[in-house]
Amino acid sequence: MHFTKDEYDDYFLNFCKMHFKNMKDEDVTFLQAYVHNTTGHHPGLVTFFMNHIKDHFYLQLKYDDILIFEKIFLYLKSYDFMTAVDLGFYTYLFLQSLTQEETQLFDKVYREPINIRLSGNIDQENQRLVKTNLLSKQGGKLNFTSPFLHALYLQRH
């Protein structure tokens, strides 16, 4: 499941209009591209990123300070953000409790997306991974839902 380009643009720009009023257009554009590329326009990840950015910079935003992309980028690379992922990102909890078979599948997918047509039973055996949006079917291949989840898997295993 992914936002279409129009859905993503609508959601993102409306969120920024509502919560990041004093952000310069250039910074909004950089953030929009970064969140899109990092999350793979996965709705849950986009929402998670945007809400945590808003919450982290609440005081700065409350007093109408200008928020710049560089500060947001540093926050998204910080220990604080990774702690938020560890504690509150629903899909990440599933990533921590993979069975041995699921871990083996993730290892294969990590190396290279798997052609579903050639893989036989992957669909039925690992339906939970697709239902929880850890993996997705993209162009006939099984792959990580987003680059962020790909990086999390590498980091945690």
Keywords:
single chain, 157 residues, mainly alpha, 3-stranded antiparallel β-sheet, 11 helices, 3 strands
Number of strands: 3
The number of helical segments is 11
User: Radius of gyration, Cα only, in angstroms?
Assistant: 17 Å
Give the number of domains.
2
| Helix/strand order, N-terminal first | HHHHHHHHEHHEEH
The largest pleated sheet is described as: 3 strands, antiparallel
Structural class: mainly alpha
Task: Please give the share of residues in helix.
Answer: 55-70%
Shape: elongated
Proportion of residues in β-strands = 5-15%
- The pLDDT mean sits at 79
Give unreliable regions as ranges: none
Strand order of the largest sheet: 1-3-2
- Distance N to C terminus: 25 Å
Please summarize what this structure is.
The chain has helices spanning 5-19, 25-39, 43-56, 58-62, 69-76, 79-88, 90-95, 100-111, 122-125, 127-131, 147-156; strands spanning 114-115, 135-138, 141-144. The protein has 157 residues and is mainly alpha-helical.
Task: Please provide a written account of the structure.
Helix content is 66%, strand content 6%. It has 157 residues and is mainly α. The protein has 2 domains: 5-88; 92-156, no CATH class. A 3-stranded antiparallel β-sheet has the order 1-3-2. Strand 2 and strand 3 (141-144) form a beta hairpin. It is elongated. The chain starts with a helix and ends with a helix. The model has no long low-confidence stretch (mean pLDDT 79).
Blueprint of the fold:
Layout: H1 5-19, H2 25-39, H3 43-56, H4 58-62, H5 69-76, H6 79-88, H7 90-95, H8 100-111, E1 114-115, H9 122-125, H10 127-131, E2 135-138, E3 141-144, H11 147-156
Antiparallel strand pairs: 1-3, 2-3
Helix pairs in contact: 1-3, 2-5
